[in-house]
Amino acid sequence: MLRRGQLYRVRRPAGDARRERVYLIVSRDDFLEVRYSTAVCVPVYTAGGFSEAELPLGPSEGLKHASFGRCDELISVPRSKLTDYVGALPADREHELNRALAIALDIHPEDIEDL
């Protein structure tokens, strides 16, 4: 079952010049459990470190090299393409993912303090 924070390698991703790309799932788990046909993901690149909206990733998450999840580039990926499991973001780093997503989406703490 797909889970938020998991990384999958996608072969021939739509709209991407690369032959394959790793994606980090950022959809919430209850959305993924409903079985929609897509999942919201962040593409992972080996080059990065240019923006606070990037999440550093690497071998501890199952990747071969130091990489970056670009939260500014959210993409909807068909669930059927998310089959080649690579690894997962440790639970203690979920706050970093949430921070990068908030920066990418220009969400400020005061905007959501009543949630």
Tag the structure with descriptive keywords.
single chain, 115 residues, alpha+beta, SH3 type barrels, 32% strand
Report on the architecture of this protein.
The protein is 17% helix and 32% strand. Strands 1, 2, 3, 4, 5, 6 and 7 form a seven-stranded antiparallel β-sheet that branches. The protein has a single domain (6-110), classed as SH3 type barrels, CATH 2.30.30. The model has no long low-confidence stretch (mean pLDDT 90). The chain is α+β, with helices and mostly antiparallel strands and 115 residues long. It contains three helices and seven strands; from the N terminus they run E-E-H-E-E-E-E-E-H-H. The protein is globular and about 40 Å long. The protein has helices spanning 29-33, 94-104, 109-112; strands at 6-11, 20-25, 38-45, 54-57, 67-70, 75-78, 84-88.
Secondary structure elements and pairings:
Elements: E1 6-11, E2 20-25, H1 29-33, E3 38-45, E4 54-57, E5 67-70, E6 75-78, E7 84-88, H2 94-104, H3 109-112
Antiparallel strand pairs: 1-2, 1-7, 2-3, 3-5, 3-6, 4-5
